[in-house]
Sequence to fold (215 residues):
Amino acid sequence: MLSEVCRLIAPARLATYSNATDGDVVKALSLYRWNQDIAGGFLRPLCNLEVALRNSLVDQIEELTAPLPWWEHSALRNEPKFDRRIRDAVSQLRFLRRSLTRDNLVPELSFGFWVGLLSSNFDRTLWRAGLHLAFPHFPGPRRELRATFQIVLNLRNRIGHHEPIYHRHLAADHVTIHKLLGYLSPEMRGWSLTQDPLPVLIGGNPVPRQRIAAP
Fold:
């Protein structure tokens, strides 16, 4: 059975786990499964952060764009990459025969889109104009906030592509996600931490002495 499992996972993919367990196939598969478990455990706080981020940002952009819809803000339309992503999302809604509304459009745009709004491209046109108000509990500079969100975005993308995350400093990732939630809303942060299974999952690492990579 194990040989068939290894074949379908693919030797090249499993090699990362085998190297971490000194070539022990059983331990490698145990680490592989734990990586799946921990990835699943991160989905809840990542979902909380992404949803809170995009709604908080849109609230502020709407203040700057009214009475036009938020996606018509000139700063977004004048940045080709962001304009293209919006147009693609609008096209997808049309394909699905769904109306073009805030509630329908926002979920069609990726986490990377929202994190990108914190880049220097929008420093003057969005951030200083009012986007910073989406983070009422963040005292630092925009570039620091963007860099921290980029760490979480990288984690989310690895999980989304079923890549290994076991080698990361997972406890630090957990803290970072909730630190960012706290910048948006301490209440949301507290709710997200309620009955959070991640600390127990992280403590169950079958290879506790593995090399730890920077988060």
